[in-house]
Amino acid sequence: MSGDCHSLARVIEGYLLAVSALKDDGSLFLCEYLGPVAPQASLDALCRALRIAPAGLSLQPLESVVCSGIACTPRQWLLERIRPMSEADRQPLDARLYDGFERELAELLRGEPRWYQLVSSGQISLTGQLGAIWSVFVFGTECHAYVMHCSWDS
């Protein structure tokens, strides 16, 4: 099953790379399989994958995270351009793109994924490791977790 999960992460990452090319704003997306663990219990696996220390970090359910600034949710990361290349690019991408992503994800995972966001206590800066602007989302089912790392660097 693990091989299938790694393949699934590559399929998801391929979709995200296509979105990145459409956005054409410098956004980068990565997806990786974290292992046979529930998303909410995957902090240690996540930190190993990102090569960061877990001190001061936690995973919070996406709907409970209070966020301000640019691109706080997976939907915003996929649809909104952080630095449009031209005036014509100021409009977000068509919402059907994200709706299709959600449907595809549910089909690939055989159920609706649960989403969590990596949150820092503010005691440490992860800009050097994760990008100038970044969000890290963990999603998956009760038995398998994946990470979606979104970043933007000028």
Low-confidence stretches: none
The shape, in one word, is globular
* H and E string: HEHEHHEHEE
Strands across the major sheet, in which order?
Answer: 1-5-4-3-2
Ends distance: 38 Å
SS field, number of helical segments: 5
Supply Rg: 15 Å
Report helical residue fraction: 25-40%
- Structural class estimated from helices and strands: alpha+beta
What's the overall average pLDDT, rounded? 86
Count of extended strands:
5
- Biggest sheet record: 5 strands, antiparallel
Instruction: Kindly estimate the percentage of residues that lie in beta strands according to DSSP.
Output: 15-25%
Features:
154 residues; alpha+beta; globular
Description of the molecule:
The chain is built from five helices and five strands, in the order αβαβααβαββ. With 154 residues, the chain is α+β, with helices and mostly antiparallel strands. The radius of gyration is 15 Å and the shape is globular. The N and C termini lie far apart (38 Å). The mean pLDDT is 86.
Short description:
With 154 residues, the protein is an alpha+beta fold.
Provide the fold topology.
Layout: H1 2-23, E1 27-35, H2 43-50, E2 57-61, H3 74-79, H4 95-109, E3 114-120, H5 127-130, E4 133-140, E5 145-152
Antiparallel strand pairs: 1-5, 2-3, 3-4, 4-5
Helix pairs in contact: 1-4
